Amino acid sequence: KHSSWNPIHVQYARKVRRITTFRLKNLEKCSAVGGGQQPTILLSYREETKHFPTRPVDRDKAEAELTLNIKKATSPEESAPKQKHVRKCIVYTWDYHTSNSIWTGLRVQPILSDEVQTFKALIMVHKVLQEGHPITLREGHQQAGWLETCARTIGHDGMRGYGALIRAYVSTILAKLRFHRQHPEFNGLFEYEEYISLKNIDDPNEGYKAFTINDLMNLQDQIDSFQKLIFAHFRGSTNNECRISALVPQVKESYGIYRFITSMLRAMHRREFGCDCQKPFDQLRPVLFQQEAKKSITAHLCLGTDGMDALQPLRERFNAQHQNLRRFYYECSNLKYLTGLINVPKLPQEPPNLINGGDAPELPRRPAKTPDIKPPPPKPETPAPDIAEQARMLKEYEEKQALLQAERDSEARRQLELQAKQQRDFEEMQRMQAERERMAQEDLMRQQMAGMAAENEIMLVQQNINAQLASKDEMMNSLQDQVTLWRNKYEALAKLYSQLRTEHLDMLSKFKAMQLKANSAQEAIDRMERMERDMKSKNLELADMILIISIRRAQKDELERLKRDLRFAEERAEDASRSRSSETSNVIAKYNRQLNELEDDLQVSLKSNEHRIAELQRLLDEKTLEASRIADEKDQELLILQEGMDSTIRQMNEMTLNQGDTDQALNAQIDNLILDNQKKLNAIIDSIIHACIQRIEDAIYELESSMHPGNETATPEYTLSLIEKTQTAAMEFSAVFGLHIDGAPGGEHVEVIKTANSMAICLAEVLVNTKGITRFASNDDAVESMARVGKESGDVAIRFFNSLMSYRLGVIPLSSRKQVVVKGNGEVSTSLQHLSSTVERLIPKGAKDLSKTTGEIGELVEKEMTMAARAIEEATKRLEMLMSRPKNDKHTAVEIQVHDAILAASLAIANAIARLIAAATESQAEIVAQGKGSSSAQAFYKRNNRWTEGLISAAKQVAYSTTLLIETADGVISGTHSLEQLIVASNEVAAATAQLVQASRVKAELMSRTQVKLEVAAKAVTDACKALVKQVKSISAKSMEMKDQHDYQNMPTHEFKVRMSHLIIFFFTAPQTILTFFLLLSRAGYHTEDTV
């Protein structure tokens, strides 16, 4: 590039450059194989060699890897960024000649939210600007705004002490970018060729301004202040690895600037003072150029004093920066982690001599100016006398020319000797260069041998990898077999799990309902037991009091009896005295009469009967003695009775005196006992009312909760019948409670408890079924409106029950208590009527309103039941016809067996449904007979029109579902329907059966014989449907196993992956499809009777 070099010198320089380029390429290969960091000199020569390893095919993969490397380099851990990640970012800029992807990757990472990530990102940016492609510096000017954002994000010192470091680091990077914008000829590490850097410093003042050496020193001061700040922020108790890693680019950049400044100052001093340092390239310069340079020494020395004064400030500032760098490198050399990453430069104690030679190359000398040779003036004509003088002068001139010729000859010899010496030196250099080339060739051979060894090792590794891949393929095949086996098992388990999950959810909902009922029933039972115990104790106390009262009454009765006995005794005594005298007289008269007769007889037969007379006399004496004895006994009895009467009269007098005090105390005890008993009975009533409130609150919770679906088999007609039943229960409860307040017959505590529980249970069922029929609503607003109306009904009932608490009624006058009951009943009826009108909106417009029917409703009900029975009968006949139909030859024996099993199960279901319809007809007749009273059946149906509508709808649904089941069974046998359709039809039959049972249960009496018979028939239908579903599922599972006969082991890889992808897509899209169809069914699952 120097115009003063001869062709030999140019050829030699080109040869040196080729050798250098070849070594750099080998060094790059070694660095790539070894995984080490690329040397700085390699990066500086990339632009010169114009190597563009663009890879458009791998661009997307490279950008993905770049994003991953940026994420790993800026991880939130307080550690140094990994060199391999930063190096891959640098290599990316050289591969694709752009850094925009790096800046984009930094922007998308959440580094601004963490100060450690921000600091590590700045370290990575600084290294990329230093060692990346030159385009990185030009593109970095556009990112100044993002760097300033990094500085503003962290306030003060931050939580980990990186705030000040981040702001200082941003200032350093921005200063570097400004310098490179003003001086684009510099690379990131300031390794610029000196002959370019010295292009504008012929004049010291001009060089000081034009080249702006002051900018380099300012950037060096910026680096020095930043490194001092880093050392000041070291923490003794924590890991400083992240802070130390920021010193690595500072050391590299400061040393590059230092060498550049040293080289520039030496060049400027050589320019000013003419110092000619012997360098290798001086030997290659032409001799004439050196002679002209020597001739110009005097001209340069005349400017030495002014140049010395101009360069004095630069030398002083350079000396100060030298000492600062020396301290900086000394402190860095004491950091073990830093010395493990880079080699820290070592500067001498004293600054280098800028005038004498150094390591920097010499400043190219300016070409000497060729003096203008003026042509000699024409010789004037000389006079003749001067010829002698001219001859003498000519002789002197010739002598001088001879001397000059001798000098030229000697100078020529000296030049020849010098050229010979230079030739010898040149040959020595060529020999040394050949030696170096031989050594380089040997190094290259060694490297090639190492490369061949590495290739052999790679081949061995490749063989091992191939063997491992083969073993892995075998393992994959075995695993594939296991996967196929486990997939089949998993599918079977999935089907079983879905079935178990459905049953489990059903059982959970049933268990929850039963648990709530059991809890409420258990609480009621516990309370009833406590009340029974209290009642027993109070009954015992009451029995004691009653015993006392009975004793008192017995004493009174005994007193009255004694009085009556006294009167009776007195009467008996008077009668005895009268009877004794009369008896004596009678006996005497009798005896006299006998005596007279005897005397007559004696006179007649005196002689013959003397002995008899004596006997009679003896008898007379005995009778006389007996009569006297009887008279004495009567006298004694009269004395005893008189004494008893006297004692009784005395006791009566004593009791009369004490009777007043005893009656008063007894009445007070009886009153207290009655009051205590009344309080306990009121407490029992309050407890029952509180249990009813709790039951309604639980139903409201289920209504509002999204986890409880409610009664999924409920229909609007059935819900309306429940609302009607609840209104009736509320009216009965209000009537009984009113009688209870008045103390009238029919208002006993047992009746209050029974009607209150009945009302709460009915209202809870209304709310649960209201939640179930929300699936028929057209939109979410209708669902929310229905839930809100149902909750309002529950709240009104809760307020009604709360107003009937004893402590609330106790503060209300007795005359106003019945008004509270009547008012609450009216509010409950109004809210239920509002709910009823809301539910009626779900009934299709084509449905009939039985309350407005003018015909015989009983006949309509009987007609529907008869039609249902007829439909079941026809279905049974059709099944029997299908079973007796000849078998199709196209079907196999297994298929014929399957068809027979399906028909047998369907026939069992049809027979069970026939018994169900018969039981439902009997139950309906019993309900009408018990409920109509003295009125007609027509009046009963019209009065309970909601229940009648639900019953008719249930009967229609049973008939329709049975017909659908038979048609589906026929379709399965004919091949027009699938087994899944048969399962759906069976489920429809079970749901219709449950609806019919619920409709009958609304009006049935407790423990009704016909209702029990209906429940048994419904259970038989349900069991038959379950048996059919189970049988169909087993048949379907066998069919699936027969269909899925794919040989996945021998299947091609592409076909296997396509099949697996289809299965995965179906696995993810099936739940959404199921949910969509479920929503459609829930919105349009209820139709008018015309569509059934």
In summary, what is this structure?
The protein has helices spanning 7-34, 40-44, 46-49, 59-73, 83-96, 100-108, 115-131, 135-140, 144-153, 163-182, 194-197, 204-210, 213-232, 241-245, 247-273, 287-295, 297-301, 304-333, 336-341, 386-604, 610-704, 716-742, 749-772, 780-803, 806-809, 817-840, 857-884, 893-932, 937-943, 945-974, 979-1003, 1009-1043, 1053-1084. It is mainly α.
What is the overall number of helices? 33
Bulk shape: elongated
CATH architecture of the domain at 864-1050: Up-down Bundle
**Which radius of gyration do the C-alpha atoms yield?**
64 Å
For this structure, what is the CATH class of the domain at 864-1050?
Mainly Alpha
CATH H-level homologous superfamily name of the domain at 864-1050: I/LWEQ domain
User: Termini separation (Å)?
Assistant: 103 Å
The unreliable regions are: 1-13, 15-52, 197-210, 275-306, 359-375, 378-384, 1082-1092
Largest sheet: none
Fold-level CATH name of the domain at 864-1050: I/LWEQ domain
> Got a strand count?
0
| Percentage of residues assigned to helices | over 70%
In what range is the share of β-strand residues? under 5%
GO biological process, one term: clathrin coat assembly
Region (Disordered): 350-385
Domain I/LWEQ: 849-1092
Protein name: Cytoskeleton assembly control protein
